[in-house]
Automatic annotation (TrEMBL):
It comes from Salarias fasciatus (Jewelled blenny). This is Phospholipid-transporting ATPase. Its EC number is 7.6.2.1. Mg(2+) binds at residues 399, 401, 788, 792. GO terms for molecular function: ATP binding; ATP hydrolysis activity; ATPase-coupled intramembrane lipid transporter activity; magnesium ion binding.
Length: 1050
């Protein structure tokens, strides 16, 4: 459960440099240092570290020793135990369960002389074997965890000090330290950087961050240590979108006091894109936003284990009842209470101690099979205790970005109303753009251009608008041949990288470059485009109106330096742009068509402004921005005065490319009866488009978009509107979800669970985990969460099965998950094949181990009943230990290799998975059937042995025990559906072990008797009578009422 953690910092000094850094720092956040892990813990008592009570803090730059309170250390500890608590802790965790405590008490009772039934080793050896396997497994996990923690806590990073840059371990970083992080790309304007927050909130767009202004005037970064300055920061909290603080410099003349906001912060788990950042550490350890938004990992106990535990309790109840009946039939004579304990010990095999060992070893085999499956390469099992959970998933909750999608935007469609251009006709667009600029050149040479707008001029205007209305910045880097300064001066194409606040915008600018109009330069006040003829067009940026979630549009006013023309360009979602552009009859229809194809649609428009119009707008805009009251409303009103009767230029369609085979995988899951919910931090429109594109929401399915609600009344009205719709997918935002869960949790979950698909957008990590928890509580069904980023970890750890996808967002999710895959498509095989097989095999194995124990317990009960209810063991010493180990262990355990259908059939018919959701392979019905089989076979063997034996008691032991071993081997053969060569080896090996051991068991078995013909025919008859009826019943059932899988294999 590892991930990338950094202390959270504010930007005190940001200087952009041109150095090349190690590849290991790619993707490092500008927070300055890294340490790794999910569960921070410096000691068991959090208050010693000052983290029991969160308070605001004053942090002196570069002087951690001036701190006013104790802060948690910047270390991780994912271990459950330490050196001293390991053995007591493991033993406590084992014996806190009824199952193991029961066998411990049994073993201890053998030290009491009146209760002893045989040799001590018959009870202590099996218990010791169980504990040894458990302790060794825990020790291996703890050692691995310790080595991982040690490695990441020892990572070396740069700290600014009076001696210059010094190296410091991540565990040695303190609040107040000045930490340095570098990244190779450079921005074309100084004093700011871009970072990505997808690990924190799921948003993949680049966000601009600004340093403290007064620190930019310092000559060098080291001067930060010479000034008397401090940061006052709010107490740690979970809000990742806000920050309140101040920066104060006391030795200034006059003293400087600047406010700090979210724009000055670099949270842990964010990714820097450019430059060198010097930041002061504000929060560490458990006080990080990312940690506070992450729930502590819970110890997951599988539903199958709980069901088995329930069955063992029933068996224990049966044990007590049988013991009481035996004493009651003795009329409670003598010291009857001692007799009860002796019978409890005598029939203790009713509750099989080998059950837990067999199941744990089976889980290890299932985990090994998953890792070795060549069709899902790179899959890792990190929780080997719950593989059978994968066979009973009812709800799959998945992240969007990086899980369902590749997070790579591709331009797919340009629509001008009368003509549309797809990927196969982009060369036409390129020729139109080229001809438009060629005509412009000819017009400059005296050739009159056409007056009426041609297709070429319309395409040119559309492409030009797309190339201008954005927030993209071209960044130049050295490529080994050309250095950075030369690349930036000559606009080298091979050295250029685009950075923006949205991957959509980058894809649009890359497309304009591909058709001939290239964005080659930009700063805060100008923009340069290069035409197909090599001419540089210069534009002055007069105003920018950034995209917001509320406005759903962005605009820019530019002046063409060559002509002096002022143009207002705007792009946005069709729902808002429809009322802004001039009337037309094709916008709504074409937007719907493109959206149904899963494309993100943007409407692009323009409006030409005269100098007087612009000056009037600017005066009103500046006045509105200076307002103290209702500033945002006044600014919006002024901007809206421009947003009227704009000329519609085009529609653009961008596709977020899906991961390989996402659509067929989701189809498989749907056919298997699994409901899929998409929980993402992304925008509503983006999430809806992806859901349609991935066919999470089918084409003919209605969609109910839950309107934004803030009050209880609004939530009530919207829920009523939703209730009237049937069989429709739900799309809801995180804010509305929070209101609904606050006032109408039960009603909302009831309605949502009936939906074929649910999309929750703008979800925080905490909300994702809350949704998983509510699904578990309200439905009682098993959940599986899939994600690839740090913001998915809470959800993954809360779900019954957590699956991490190793992707571009790092390994945080995969390291914290129970299972790690490299691609989403592998989830289909993981559930349909391995999950299904693990559950069915575990069910068969557990029932067979119970059957094995009940058989010998039934024989003991018959034996005691015949011999006047005496508490005397039928089999003693090695016979009783060998029965559940060397004589029957290999064939019974070989059931973990059994399968009812081939993996190809399981993938082709996912409906087979649906049968498992009802828990039929291990139910009270199947349990009762196996109990009746055990009672029948145990009674037949025991009564047959007593009827057919001649003189000595030792002959009863020989006949009954041999018949019992042969019956178990034949029952395994009866249960197996697909033979594996190891199964045959197990059967023959067990039989050989028993025959060979007869030579050494003369104390219990008459060796001469077992070589006689009399012994052989008696054993044969008893074995046939115990097994043959069951074989006949199995044949009749398969003939007249075959299960679903047998119809596919026949």
């Amino acid at each position: 459960m590892l991930t990338c953690y950094q202390p959270e910092v504010t930007l005190d000094h940001l200087k952009l440099i041109t150095c090349q850094i190690e590849e290991a720092l790619v993707g490092v956040s500008p927070s300055g240092c890294l340490c790794f892990g999910w569960q921070f813990e410096c000691c068991p008592w959090s208050r010693c570290c000052g983290i029991g009570d969160f308070r605001p803090r004053t942090v002196w730059l570069g002087h951690p020793e001036k701190r006013e309170q104790r802060y948690p250390r910047n270390v991780i500890n994912n271990q459950k135990y330490n050196f001293f608590t390991f053995l007591p802790g493991v033993l406590f965790n084992q014996f806190k369960y009824f199952f193991n405590l029961y066998f411990l008490l049994l073993a201890c009772s053998q030290f009491v002389e009146e209760l002893r039934l045989g040799a001590l080793y018959t009870y202590w050896v099996p218990l010791g074997l169980v504990l040894f396997i458990t302790i060794m497994r825990e020790a291996v996990d703890e050692i691995r965890c310790y080595l991982r923690d040690k490695e990441v806590n020892s990572q070396i990073y740069s700290k600014l000090s009076m001696r210059g840059n010094v190296k410091v371990k991540s565990s040695g970083i303190q609040v107040g330290d000045l930490i340095i992080v570098e990244k190779v790309y450079l921005l074309s304007f100084t004093g700011s950087c871009f970072l990505r927050t997808d690990q924190l909130d799921g948003e993949t767009d680049w966000k601009l961050r600004l340093p403290v202004a007064c620190t930019q005037r310092l000559p060098t970064a080291t001067d930060l240590l010479q000034i008397r300055s401090y940061v006052y920061a709010e107490e740690p909290n979970i809000d990742i979108h806000n920050f309140i603080g101040t920066f104060t410099r006391e030795d200034g003349d006059p003293p400087v006091n600047e406010s700090l906001s979210i724009e000055n912060t670099l949270w842990a788990s964010t990714v820097i894109a450019s430059g060198t950042v010097v930041g002061v550490v504000i929060y560490t350890g458990k006080e990080l936003r990312s940690v506070m938004n992450t729930s502590n990992p819970r110890h997951k106990v599988g539903l199958f284990d709980l069901e088995v535990n329930c069955l063992t309790k029933i068996l224990f109840g049966a044990l007590v009842v049988v013991s009481l009946v035996m004493v009651a039939l003795q009329h409670f004579a003598g010291r009857w209470y001692l007799q009860i304990f002796r019978f409890l010990l005598l029939f203790s095999h009713i509750v099989p101690i080998s059950l837990r060992v067999n199941l744990d070893m089976g889980k290890m085999v299932f985990s090994w099979m998953i890792k070795k499956d060549s069709k899902i390469p790179g899959t890792v099992v990190r929780a080997s205790t719950i593989p059978e959970q994968l066979g009973r998933i009812s709800y799959l909750l998945t992240d969007k970005t990086g899980t369902l999608t590749q997070n790579e935007m591709v331009f797919r469609r340009l629509h001008l109303g009368t003509v549309a251009y797809g990927m196969d006709s982009m060369d036409e667009v390129q020729s139109h753009v080229f001809s438009a600029y060629t005509q412009v050149s000819e017009a400059g040479n005296g050739i009159s251009p056409q007056v009426r707008k041609t297709i070429s001029s319309r395409v040119h205007e559309a492409v030009k608008a797309i190339a201008l209305v954005h927030n993209v910045t071209p960044v130049y880097e050295a490529n080994g041949v050309t250095d950075q300064a030369e690349a930036e001066q000559h606009y080298e194409d091979t050295c250029r990288v685009y950075q923006a606040s949205s991957p959509d915008e980058v894809s649009l600018v890359q497309w304009t470059e591909s058709v001939g109009l290239t964005l080659v330069g930009r700063d805060q006040s100008s923009m340069q485009l290069r035409t197909p003829t090599g001419q540089i067009l210069n534009f002055t940026i007069l105003q920018i109106f950034p995209f917001t979630y509320e406005s759903k549009r962005m605009g820019i006013i530019v002046r063409d330096e060559s002509t002096g023309e002022i143009t207002f360009y705007m792009k946005g979602a069709d729902v808002v742009m429809a009322g802004i552009v001039q009337y037309n009859d094709w916008l709504e229809e074409e937007c719907g068509n493109m959206a149904r194809e899963g494309l993100r649609v943007l409407v692009v428009s323009k409006k030409s402004l005269t100098e007087e119009q612009y000056q009037d707008f600017e005066a009103r805009y500046v006045q509105a921005k200076l307002s103290v009251h209702d500033r945002s409303l006044k600014v919006a009103t002024v901007i809206e005065s421009l947003e009227m009767e704009m000329e519609l230029l085009c529609l653009t369609g961008v596709e977020d490319q899906l991961q390989t085979d996402v659509r067929p995988t989701l189809e498989i899951l749907r056919n298997a009866g699994i409901k899929v919910w998409m929980l993402t931090g992304d925008k509503l429109e983006t999430a809806t488009c992806t859901a349609k594109n991935a066919h999470l929401i089918t084409r003919n399915q209605d969609i109910h978009i839950f309107r934004p609600v803030t009050t209880r009344g609004e939530a009530h009205l919207e829920l009523n509107a939703f209730r009237r719709k049937h069989d429709c997918a739900l799309v809801i935002s995180g804010d509305s979800l929070e209101v609904c869960l606050k006032y109408y949790e039960y009603e909302f979950m009831e309605l949502a669970c009936q939906c074929p698909a649910v999309v929750c957008c703008r979800c925080t990590p905490t909300q994702k985990a809350q949704i998983v928890r509510l699904l578990q509580e309200r439905t009682g069904k098993l959940t599986c969460a899939v994600g690839d980023g740090g913001n998915d970890v809470s959800m993954i750890q809360e779900a019954d099965c957590g699956v991490g996808v190793e992707g571009k967002e790092g390994k945080q999710a995969s390291l914290a998950a129970d299972f790690s895959v490299t691609q989403f498509k592998h989830l289909g095989r993981l559930l349909m094949v391995h999950g299904r097989n693990s559950y069915k095999r575990s069910a068969a194995l557990s029932q067979f181990v119970i059957h094995r124990s009940l058989c010998i317990s039934t024989m003991q009960a018959v034996f005691s009943s015949v011999f006047y209810f005496a508490s005397v063991p039928l089999y003693q010493g090695f016979l009783i230990i060998g029965y559940s180990t060397v004589y029957t262990m290999f064939p019974v355990f070989s059931l973990v290799l059994d399968k009812d259908v081939k993996s190809e059939v399981a993938m082709l018919y996912p409906e087979l998975y649906k049968d498992l959701l009802k828990g039929r392979p291990l139910s009270f019905k199947t349990f009762l059937i196996w109990v009746l089989i055990s009672i029948y076979q145990g009674s037949i063997i025991m009564y047959g042995a007593m009827l057919l034996f001649e003189s000595e008691f030792v002959h009863i032991v020989a006949i009954s025990f041999t018949s019992l071993i042969l019956t178990e081997l034949l029952m395994v053969a009866l249960t197996i559906q697909t033979w594996h060569w190891l199964m045959i080896v197990g059967e023959l090996l067990s039989l050989a072990c028993y025959v060979a051991s007869l030579v050494f068991l003369h104390e219990f078995i008459d060796v001469y008797f077992i070589t006689t013909v009399s012994f052989l025919w008696k054993v044969t008859v008893i074995t046939l009578v115990s097994c043959l009826p069951l074989y006949i019943l199995k044949y009749l059932r398969r003939r007249f009422s075959p299960p679903n899988y047998s119809k596919l294999t026949s």
